[in-house]
Amino acid sequence: MSGGSLVGAGSIERTIFRFIWKYSKRDQLILLAVTATLFPLLYLTLELPKRIINDAIGATSQIVDVWGYSLPQTTFLMILCFAFLVAVLAHGLMKMRINTMKGVLSERMLRRLRYLLINRALRFPQPYFERVSQGEMVSMITAESEPMGGLMGDAISQPVLQAGQMITILSFLFLQSVWFGLAAVALIPLQAWLIPRLQRQINLLNKQRIQEVRVLAAQIGENAAGASTLRANGGWRYRRAMISDQLGRLFAIRFDIYQKKFFMKFINNFISQLTPFMFYLVGGLLVLQGSVSLGALVAALAAYKDLSSPWKELLTYYNQTQDMSLRWDVVIERFAPDGMIDEKLFEGEPVERPQLNGDIVLDRVSVRDIDGNQVLDDLNLTFPAGRTIGISATSEEDRNALTELLTREIVPTSGRIEIGDINMADLHQGVVAARVGLATSRPVMFQGTLGENVMMPMRSRPLSASTEDPDFPETLRAGNSADPFDVEWVDPGLAGFDDTARLRDWWLQLIDGMGSGAALFQRGAEQVFDPNEHPDLAAKLIELRPLVQKEVQKAGLTEQALVFDRLAYNPALPVAENLLFATPCVPVTRQLLAQQTVFLGQLRELGLDETLVSLTRDVIELLRQIFGLDGTDHPLFRKLGLEAQTYEAAVELVEQTRKEGARGLDDEQLASLLSVPFVISAEQIGPAFSDELKNRILELRHSHSDKLLEPLHDVFVPLDENAFAPGLTVMENALFGKVSQIGGARTDEARKKIVDVLAENGARPMVVELIYDVPVSLGGQNLPAVFAEPLAFTRATIKKPDILILETALASYDMETQVAVYKNLRELLPETTVIYLNDTFENPDVFDMYVEIRQGRVVTGEGPTDVEGDGAASADLVRKLRALEQTPLFSGLDRRQLRLLAFGARWFEAKPGQVVFLKDDQPTDGAYVVLEGEAGLYLPRSGEADQLIATVGAGALVGELGLIRKEPRALSMVAETELSCLRIGEEEFLAVVENDAATAFKLLQVIAGYVSN
Questions:
Q1: Which of 58, 847, 859, 891 has its CA at 20 to 30 Å from residue 885's CA atom?
Q2: Per-residue pLDDT tens for 833-849?
Q3: Distance (Å, rounded) from C-alpha 681 to C-alpha 748?
Q4: Max Cα separation, the chain?
């Protein structure tokens, strides 16, 4: 959707050089001044060799007069040589310093640019992301901006440096002889004209080469995919000839490239050597004539060799500026969309934070989408403050538009939204974020922990402006955020609390209020936690162990809840943990195991290495048969807890152990194989894990576990009924055992029994609080769905907003639960205006105000109003849209899909008794949406009257099954009354079903209804 453009959104400089000059003028001038000091040193490195040859080596006497001083020839020679050495050293050090300064400046400017682009993306209107993909933005900010950084450091200093070096060298040559200077510059124009033209021809050949390589790649792919077909049909010789022909084309192109490339190098080198030829010829004659000295000629030759480098650098700089200017234009175009949030409303702190506790008034509000099509049309609504409002909108596009309006993600195309006497368009974003809460069923989650995601509204600003970070001054110098990162950000005062403990208590109240406490408690009981961070919970679990074990035994669940016993093998515990009768306090990886050389040596001494390697081999063979080498991303494999890299390494080592056994493995290889029994339990291995092996491990536990544990004291903690086991979950610590994974429903019963005991004995709040520390991966991919709605709900409500918007946030709850949540929420937030948006509500009476919106308009008791159009075609399209949106199957379609469907639909009228289609007709005429009247669906019978199967009326869709199955009509359709329909063509109907998941699902429900009937 597009709203009115938010003016004053700030702009990026139109050219890259304006950007560079604006933000680095001072640094560029300093760099320019430092660069200027290089030229005298360069001149000295050219002048001193001439002086050494002419004035020292070529002196006519052994005493040389220098500035009124008489020096021996050898002394003067040494002084000049050391002066030359100092000049060369100073020149090199200055170049190093200049390059370092350029590098720092480049990185600083690149950092500024990237931060600027990322910051601007935060102000983009939400609909803009529908047109620009995240991948495209990431590429622009990272890869495409990278080369710009180099130009930002070189912008002024590079042309000045290279041009200055050229001028210095040419000045030196002209000072030696005008002829030397003219010879040096004479062929530069020829090179500048000829070499780029030859390079362009090579570039064209390279493009052609890439195209032919793609053809070859396609042919290779075909051969690989169809190798068996070629063998079966005798086509391999023809395909080999085809490949040879393609390779021949590549050879010919490469041959042309080599010819032109090396011819270009020959011409370039020849032209470059023509100048020395002129120096030797003309310079030699001038030396013989006495016009110039031999030292001047030698120095001129040396100077000329240094002339080509700055000339090439200048040409490269010119090409770079052209390329970067084009890239800059592309980036600017993408990062300056219409409708960006005004920078004044986004940056800094708001002057005041008014309460948004007045009536919400939508005054003639209209919204258009990014294509200019109407989405919301002339809404006039007033939502009373502090009340509960329900808004039913079958179209997801309508719900999204309303949500974005009320959170100011978009602004109206026309009209205005006022809250009390405040125009929402004028509010600072900080006020909107603090006073308006939004929860959806699809919350965006950021990498970190669940608590960090929930507390996002509490981190609106740092609580301290000072930081001890030594790199922070550089952050400020690069124009990045002035907010320090490594300080406290959580501000309980934003929700009216004094400390974070009370804020967490409020979070727990919200969890219970939305009815998620039990589900999260169950998930919390499956978490592993650090006893140092939650000492009370650790002590509580140890205290409850006898009671938990008693209740489990009383319920007859001892085969599912396997209590640890030093005298018995626990099949739910990994093999290595059974051997040691201990649990790991840190994640056990193959790298960590490889470092435990003493432990591995003890295993070899006891002969356990062969036993464990043999067991690993059997397990790996089993897993390889099930998952193969590429099935490590399967959920069942991930459930094993075995890392993909560990599995792949073990697969490679298994074959080696067949021949040499464990003896042929070094410590690192043995650790890779032993990583498997350190993770997988006897339950997971199954029958391959024999009772004999269990007894062997028990014998070794009794005789050697203490000794084996000695070198592993930093990795494993012995199991003790009176001590907390850090490697176990809450549930396992409470039981002091493992819950079987293969007990089916009885296993679930055992888990529930343990959880119930914890809840009845006051552990529930402490366990639920563990959810706060659950890690969240990128995009929340590791979180189950049970966390999504509680996270969205509590993130929106934890700040105690004045306005709370719940867009299908409770969609997974039944109506009874939803009503209970409505009531709980009203008790928790008595003064908040709560707005529920959903496609439909079973019981609208629970709301203080209920509004139904269909296709962008408020539904009233009046008939549909006419819509302004541009002509008859537009009015006809609107009529079709109105007809389709009344059909349950299509009512949820987004506006674009509905418009496409309406465009392809045709009106169809039928008189009573008129046949619409007959049984066994081909369904090419499409499906029919009945708008008015009734039609009968008949099954023809030979020699009898047709049997009426069903009567369909307004809103029914007829004939869709034939389109989907591509089979003849199963029934005949005959008009019973005056019939008005929309006929949807086969292609249009199937396109919608294939591209819209919601419509396909509704169609599935309709078909299921046919089956049930």
A1: 847
A2: 999 998 888 778 888 89
A3: 19
A4: 139
